Amino acid sequence: QVQLVESGGGLVQPGGSLRLSCAASGFTSSSYAMSWYRQAPGKERELVARISSTGGSTNYADSVKGRFTISRDNAKNTVYLQMNSLKPEDTAVYYCYAAHVFIARQVWGQGTQVTVSS
């Protein structure tokens, strides 16, 4: 079964850190560019960070630059999102997304809740 499973979400105080993980199963993630999206209540889903299939290229939303770091371990079929200096406005459901680099095939994870609050 092709799926992405996120973990690592939770409640953290402002200024704190969390590391999200996204484990791929049923497919080889090294053929996919991987991304993290987030969706806050009442808002549209937005791209947070993207990493190329090899890990050689990354992109970030302006709102998280300098605070978040996306990385991947293709040997473990896993992508990570290290989130530092968290702010209340980072509160959202975070989704992992995989897009094949050559064919029209995409996979979404089920999401993990991140809440930043004192």
The chain-level structural class is: mainly beta
Rg computed from alpha carbons, rounded to a whole number of angstroms: 14 Å
- Uncertain spans: none
Number of strands: 11
What portion of residues belong to β-strands? over 45%
What is the helical fraction, as a range of percent? under 10%
Calculate the terminal CA-CA distance, rounded to whole Å: 39 Å
Looking at the chains present, what oligomeric state does this protein adopt? single chain
Number of helices: 0
Mean pLDDT over the full residue set: 96
Shape call: globular
Please trace the helix and strand order, writing H or E for each element. Answer: EEEEEEEEEEE
Q: What characterizes the major β-sheet?
A: 7 strands, mixed
Question: Describe it for me?
Answer:
This protein is an all-beta fold and 118 residues long. 0% of the residues lie in helices and 53% in strands. It is built from no helices and eleven strands. The protein has strands spanning 3-7, 10-12, 18-25, 32-39, 46-51, 58-60, 68-73, 78-83, 92-100, 106-108, 112-116. Strands 2, 4, 5, 6, 9, 10 and 11 form a seven-stranded mixed beta sheet that branches. A four-stranded antiparallel beta sheet has the order 1-3-8-7, with no helix packed on it. A hairpin with a 6-residue loop joins strand 4 (32-39) and strand 5 (46-51). The chain is globular, with a radius of gyration of 14 Å. The protein starts with a strand and ends with a strand.
